[in-house]
Amino acid sequence: MTRIRRGAAHCRNNGCWENEKLVALVPFTLEFECPRCGRPTAIEAEFGTGLGSSQHYNEVRVYFGFDAATRTYTEIAHVQDDSLVGQHSAYAFFTPLVRERAEAERVASALLRKLNGERPARVKAGHVTSEQLRNEGWRIAS
Predict the structure, then answer these.
(1) DSSP 59-122
(2) Alpha-carbon distance 79 to 11, whole Å?
(3) pLDDT of residue 2
(4) Can you say whether residue 70 is alpha, beta or left, with left for phi > 0 and alpha for psi between -120 and 50 degrees?
(5) In angstroms, rounded to a whole number, what is the distance separating the alpha carbons of residues 129 and 141?
(6) Fewer CB atoms inside 10 Å of the end CB: C or N, the chain?
(7) Phi, psi (deg, nearest 5) at residue 91
(8) What pLDDT shows up at residue 119?
(9) What is the pLDDT of residue 130?
(10) Which residues of the chain have pLDDT under 50?
(11) Would you give the DSSP letter of residue 127?
(12) What whole-number distance in Å separates Cα of residue 92 and Cα of residue 60?
């Protein structure tokens, strides 16, 4: 079973000033109302899925640059492991929270290492705080 841990919400009311502006949901929730107009918002969760039948992945694709107006991802970053020979699977990860290509490539590299069981020598606590998200320009749901 997949646990959804992160996501974003955006107002779909055309008359609202907050229309189509993403708000990070920390922690993730399935219901959120626009702070401006009070109407329910659209929720976009981060999720990933394996493509193929192999248990080893030679490619991870991160879909990012979420466009709230069309509810589509506008950019793709991918990382490949060329050391794996033969037919292997790919993994697709969709995230409305990543905006920059460099960050998407870091996410793809980390996912590839995690999916194939490779552990880094030094693991840092990777919890993102609400303050860090605010510093990156996100508006935080309260």
Answers:
(1) EEEEEEEEETTTTEEEEEEEEE-TT--S--EEEEEE-SS--SHHHHHHHHHHHHHHHTT---SS
(2) 33
(3) 54
(4) alpha
(5) 13
(6) N
(7) -130, 130
(8) 42
(9) 75
(10) 1, 119-125
(11) P
(12) 6
Given this model, what pLDDT does residue 139 score?
Answer: 76
List phi, psi (to 5°) of 16: -90, 145
Query: CA–CA distance from 115 to each of 39, 51, 88, 105 (Å)?
Result: 39, 13, 12, 15
Q: What is the pLDDT of residue 89?
A: 86
pLDDT at position 141, please? 75
Backbone angles phi, psi at 76, to 5 degrees: -135, 135
Beta strands 139-140; 23-24: pairing state? parallel
Percentage of the chain modeled with pLDDT above 90: 44
- Residues 24 and 8 sit within 8 Å (Cβ to Cβ): yes
Question: What is the rounded CA–CA span in Å between residue 115 and residue 16?
Answer: 41
Q: Which of 128, 122, 12 is nearest to 68 (CA)?
A: 12
Structure tokens at 108: 């793809």
Would you state the pLDDT for residue 93?
Answer: 95
The position carrying tokens 């699977």 is 89
Give the SS3 label for residue 133: helix
